[in-house]
Design a protein that fits this description.
Strands 1-2-3 form a three-stranded antiparallel sheet, covered by helices on one side. Helix content is 32%, strand content 14%. Among the domains are: 1-39; 70-137. A hairpin with a 4-residue loop joins strand 1 (70-76) and strand 2 (81-87). The protein is of the alpha+beta class.
Amino acid sequence: MLNPFIALMLLTVKKLMFLAKLRKSVPKDVGFHLINYKDKKFQEIVTYKNYNVPVISAEENSKVVLDKVSFKIELDREEKVIVVIAFDRRKNPICIVKGRKAKEIYDTLIRENLIGRLDHGAYIGRELQKAETALRIGKRYVQDFELFYNEFWDM
């Protein structure tokens, strides 16, 4: 019987070597902690099939309507905070909101009446959650771009 830790290490090495072959390079810049972001088995419980209601297929809205305020989201790694700079329609800064958690920041933006549209609020919530995750795991954050994009996933 193989030691579970050794088995995990071998599985990790196998994944690293696969990525290296795919990239046609040595396995660099891929940490051991990578295995923490994937579960071996999925354990979600699917309940929606039990409901006798219409199922609506989701569609992205192609029409963009600007809100009264726009935001630039960045990370301050020295202070370990997410920074949101709010701008008016003329691109003049209004205020800066800093916090460690996405929820405390978007709660503040709502309380300060800086978010006027529901779709903008959803977008800001999604971006703040990406920023929080990037800050927590040491990943680079760029607003409006995927946090975990890799050409490997497009195969």
